[in-house]
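OP here, attaching both records as promised.
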Amino acid sequence: MRLRHGLALALVAVLATACGSDDAAPRGSIVWGGSTPAADTALPAECVQPPFTVVAERDGDNAVGSATYEVTSTVGLPIPLVPNKDGAISGVDVMSKGADTDLLGYVLFFGDEQFGPGDVSMFGGYAPTAEGHSRGTVSIFPHTTTPLAAGDVLTPGLLDGLDMTTTLFRVTMDFKATPDELTSYLDTIKGSVRIVAVTETTLCLDVDLTWDYSDFSSEALGALTVKGIFTATLAPRTMAFT
């Protein structure tokens, strides 16, 4: 079996030095936009803001979560993509394009404790802050130059359709029950994520994912399952990935 560490974004190349930090403010990141826009009211009926109930459960030896997990808070973090593997785009132009591009990936944070857009970033907000609580993430990225849109169904795999320097996966997830928890995962996630709605202010995902986890060995201890419809108000976009 292939062993993969359960870092929330699976961005080994760019986040190796930042992983383990859970500060609310990203180190070295640039955020455009001074405030979070108001929630979008023109959404499908199934896209309901918290509280709502989903499956967010890790079974087996390190069981945590529940098949009736009560989500208290969600936030969606937009991540601009500016393909630049050949380095032809200058750093200044990458910043400018990142502020305007429609080519975005997203991290959807959810948990059973209170948090908001100011509490998450590219490098922080992935773990719970209070004892007895938990947080999870579902991350999605486009694998072509076509922006993500409602109706798209994303399946796991390497993001190999863009000329990116950063190593990304089309779909990934994680779930933490303690602030310092680090889980390893085996092989490939099973399932898919359907975009129910994505607007300037809101992300709504229909998630049906399962991933075997381990204790950093090659033997599965159980599986993490995340399933349900998640709606999140979007935070300001982060710095661009290239």
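Record two, same layout:
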Amino acid sequence: MSKIVDLNKKIPFHLERVKGYGWVYNQQLDGLNRVLSGSLSTSRNLLLLSVSTRHQRLASLALHNAGNSERAFVHLQQMHYLGIKGLKRELLSDGQTVNVKVLEDTLMLSMQEKEPLLSSGDWFMYFWSALLHEQFQDLEYLASIKEAPFRWIDDSIRLYSDILCGVFKLQDINVQESIQAFVDASEFDKVSPESYDHAAHIKLPTLDVLLKLFGGADQNSYRQVMYKAALAHNKFWKQKRLDGKVNGDISLPLSALARLAYANFGYTLGFECDYIPEYFYKSEASELSFELMQPLPNFTNPYL
């Protein structure tokens, strides 16, 4: 029997030191706005996946430095939109185009001259952001491009994508067999130490939450497994070797599952967690905004 955890004990946060430095967000936002404004005249050179990553970074800064979860959520919406458009552009054939809206203009982008270089990390990031933002058609799209030239670091990572597609019925996959295959392929002597570490602290705890939800767990059971997954998330991302990596600043998988739990069952976390903001799973769905984002008030760069 698993140990009952105390939900009143706050989840540690590895970026506690950045809180209150909202001026950093405003500074970085100004840089992005300059890029987006300039892209309207040089659209052929617009790197959608790169801009998507900048929105991910700004989401972290808005949430943790400036304490503004609503603004952070808007950045994650933009991150997802531009990321999916970026994947589609990477996979264009000669003569094909993809339309993408930047600010108030719609750009028609053609294929890029270089060979596509797609990361499995991108696939997972946009899978979870599609779930978070309830863009279910994008889940279907991501399932449909799994055979594209993504760089799957090892077999275990590819098998984990099979599990997700099977659980959400995006592909006809035997989930139990895929889970066992994933566990076997993730053994310490079969993958890199980094991949093993990620499986133990991120993939498996997230999978536990997913299976609890789809298995009909009550709210108390759900809260217990979410709390343990959030603790594991902190344990992984607080490592010195991951300093500066933005991916762990917000837990997209756990935030997405929290939204799923709240929308379908009314479940709440029942504990505080910087990695899973309450606003992310309780807010109403909203239309994507393409207006130029303004700096947040009351944050002044002390070095100017």
